[in-house]
Design brief:
17 helices, flat
Amino acid sequence: LEHSFDWIWFAMRFFALLISLFLAAVLVAADPPATQNRVSSSTPSSANDAIEMLAKLPNPLVERHLVDFFASASTEDAGQVLMHIAISAVRPARAVVIPVLGHRDPQVVERALRALSSIGINSTELRMNIETHLSEGEPMVAIQAAICLGSHDDLRAVPALIARITKGPPEVAGVAVTALQRLTRVDFKNDVIAWNAWYDTYRAEARQRINTQAEMLIMADNKKQIAGIQALAGMRGERQESIDLIEPMLKGSDLTVVMSARQALATLAPTEYSMPTAAEVTAITNPAPIVTEAKAQGMIAYLSDKGLFDTWYGVALTAFIGILIL
């Protein structure tokens, strides 16, 4: 009798599996992906198409199509899309804009720099790329590069801006001085010697501060690591350097250090990172025991949020999956 019961139970589970697969197919067919979320499989053919595609970022396929668009677009079309990115501050488009800095047309490069002035510089490599345009670009490109560098908080751009005071046309020098004033909150006019003296003093002090905190990050004591992260979060003049040091801490195994790193990054770059939620902080500071029932309730809540229980076949599918799990 016991052997017969095993066969009956096996048959029930087998048929439950077949029915679950059938219902899953019905569920997919009845609820296809929304049309507006589908990604075009081709490169935009016009500026308007490209602007419309920006709304689908971030998406690797969309990025690739937009990069291809800028590579072949006319100056007018490329400029129109870049100005839209600048005016609307489309930050997810940064990965698309950066390759445009190598465009053959200076007018397009100038518009790309305008866009980056709006959406931000998020890496040391990008800052150095813009510095190259400041020192080697045509006047209109150099002017926009100076504005871009002056729009952010990385004081390592100061030497490149100082160098441009005496190199090139007066209009570029004037914009470089304005950018220096904005970055440093001091004003030495066109006095290159005074600017260099100020930067040498500042940089020596900044390097010492950065090195002190960097050493704390590699200590075994997590309290020391957290103290170093919090100190770096307050270094606005060395914002990108601090970010470069804190980002690797996100990959650590100590969750309290990871949480502190996330909070610091959200403080330094609120448009790039988000603060941990209250639930995440509570989960780290007051970890709850893992309970199977709680896991099941969480899964049910997730499926409910996804609308799985809004249809008869969704409820049936869930029931049969439950049978399989049992």
